[in-house]
Amino acid sequence: MIHENASIDPAARLAPDVRVDPWSVIGADVEIAAGTWIGSHCVIDGPTIIGRDNHIYPFNSIGGMPQDKKYDGERTLLTIGDRNIIREYCTLNRGTMQGGGVTKVGNDNWIMAYVHIAHDCQVNNDNVIANGTALAGHVVVEDFVTLGGFTLIHQFCNIGAYSFSGGGSAITKDVLPYVMVAGNYAKPYGINVVGLKRRGFDAQALQKLRRAYKIIYKRGNTLEQALLELENMATEGDGINRIIDFLQRSSRGIVR
């Protein structure tokens, strides 16, 4: 499964059925689990751990040192989970000690061409990151997020679950779960109705999220006032609790 024109460091650990196409270079301290395909002309540096059944297309640079002037050769890590699709010309960097030492990509993400995921980012599961999107350092992307093409995200921003960004957005604050944002600088444009319906949200759940959106964005409330109203309408296990938790954790403030 390893093409004769691929270069694999003897210290790399690849499962027997990993496929590596010609002209790819895999360094020492790289671990790749079963079922993963590495296309041609990829460079994978370590320490990097790549899980099962990933499709990594040609011309990717994975596990390179962080683009951070504070980095001084410390041992840091990139981890990639299972069943991700990483299209051409993406760059995924290792972490820094100041950011916890690990850049992490979860499972079942679709990462399109020319995406940059910088040091210490945490990309969770089932996200779509469209062409040319760039995540600065320490960005957190929760689950089921769609980032439109050429979205730019400032360092330390959190992107809430089920949210959506329009193409060309510049995001400098946290994005609430379930919300659509767009523009430079990004502004909110309602609930991500289409995406939520695709994920099985029913009419009652959507109605409640629309009400929460109005409380936060349409009634002139401060965030403290909005939190009080949201807490009064929340029930166990519903999406309102996710919004409350996100607001309480937000350190940058939210897109408004």
CATH topology value of the largest domain: UDP N-Acetylglucosamine Acyltransferase, domain 1
Number of helices: 4
Secondary structure: number of strands: 27
What is the assigned CATH homologous superfamily of the largest domain? Hexapeptide repeat proteins
Mean pLDDT: 96
CATH architecture grouping of the largest domain: 3 Solenoid
- Overall number of domains: 2
Judging from the principal axes of the Cα atoms, what is the shape? elongated
* Range of helix content: 10-25%
How far apart are the first and last residues' alpha carbons, in Å? 51 Å
- Poorly predicted regions are none
Q: According to CATH, what is the class of the largest domain?
A: Mainly Beta
The description of the largest β-sheet is: 10 strands, mixed
Given the helix and strand composition, which structural class is it?
Answer: alpha/beta
Radius of gyration of CA atoms, rounded to a whole number: 20 Å
* Neighbour order of strands in the largest sheet: 3-6-9-12-15-18-21-24-26-27
Strand content: 25-35%
Overall description:
With 256 residues, this protein is α/β, with parallel strands linked by helices. The protein folds into two domains: 7-141, UDP N-Acetylglucosamine Acyltransferase, domain 1 (3 Solenoid), CATH 2.160.10.10; 196-249, Up-down Bundle (Udp N-acetylglucosamine O-acyltransferase, Domain 2), CATH 1.20.1180. The protein has four helices and 27 strands. It has helices spanning 193-198, 203-217, 223-233, 239-249; strands at residues 7-8, 13-14, 19-20, 25-26, 30-32, 37-38, 43-44, 48-50, 55-56, 61-64, 77-80, 85-86, 91-93, 102-105, 110-111, 116-117, 122-123, 128-129, 134-135, 140-141, 146-147, 152-153, 158-159, 164-165, 170-171, 179-182, 187-191. The strands form three sheets. A ten-stranded mixed β-sheet has the order 3-6-9-12-15-18-21-24-26-27. The chain has a nine-stranded parallel β-sheet with strand order 1-4-7-10-13-16-19-22-25, with no helix packed on it. Strand 26 (179-182) and strand 27 form a beta hairpin. Helix 3 packs antiparallel against helix 4 (239-249). It is elongated, with a radius of gyration of 20 Å. The N and C termini lie far apart (51 Å). 42% of the residues are buried.
